[in-house]
Amino acid sequence: MILTLLKSRFADALSGIADDPAQLLDMIKSSQDPKFGDYQANCAMPLGKKLGQPPRDIAAQIVERLDVADFCEPPEVAGPGFINLKLKEEWLTEQVNGILVDDRLGVTPVSEPKHVVVDYSSPNVAKPMHVGHLRSSVIGDAICRILRFAGHKVTSDNHIGDWGTQFGMIIYGYKHFVDQAGYEEDPVGELARLYRLVNQLSDYHAAVNSLPDLEQKLSAAQQALTTAEAGGEPKDKSEKKQRKALRKSVSGLEQQVGSTRKIMEAVRSSPVVSSAADEH
């Protein structure tokens, strides 16, 4: 509000000095140091250079034409041509008192409302919710309220996501692995356990199927690297770059093979889960 008001007054003051005042208005900003006032305008520097006049003289001309007496103390020209502005305390008091009795707290609705879609929350519906899920909900709801208060049309959307696959896993787990006593005592907890179990079995079978191909690729990459290194140091940048790419490929494949074997080992180390994997 204050910055908009200042820019409006400066636009009037600059209209008889600058050809395009609008380009200079962005140089009116909040002061970084309170000793220079509340706001500072630096537009006299580029304008002085353009007009071939000392910036301080240009600043003095702007101040002479500037009408801000209703809410600012007399503007001051400082340094090479800065214009320092300090707000009147009685004006600030009047504005704050007015906001206190204003239902909109001094916020004017936007002149051109937009239709805004805010997608938030979206928890995994196949798992138990916890207090952490409230973070996205609270932030999303706050954004919606702010936008509506500003005058925009807001559509809030809680996107469920790919819940078909997740519930398919739960249904499969319920049919084959449910602990009826556990389900009766804690239904949500038991369904979450079933989801994790079936997901683990799915990852296990995917790992079993992919491991031979990964090991073959790793063996080929290691052989290619061994052959390349047998030729001694790289002869040029191209060969050095190729050698580096081979090492990176070997390292990446080693990590994939290691993580794949770890998935399989986690299942095989548990007699219960291993038996389930063999049967399903």
Molecular structure report:
The protein is α+β, with helices and mostly antiparallel strands. The protein folds into 3 domains: 2-91, Gyrase A, domain 2, CATH 3.30.1360.70; 109-157, no CATH class; 165-279. Helices cover 60% and strands 8% of the residues. It has 10 helices and 6 strands. The protein has helices at residues 2-14, 44-51, 55-65, 89-100, 133-150, 163-177, 180-185, 187-230, 237-268, 271-279, and strands at residues 28-30, 39-41, 76-78, 82-85, 115-119, 153-157. The strands form 2 sheets. It has a 4-stranded antiparallel sheet, covered by helices on one side. A two-stranded parallel sheet has the order 5-6. The longest helix is centred in the last third of the chain and has 44 residues, at 187-230. The radius of gyration is 34 Å and the shape is elongated. The mean pLDDT is 92.
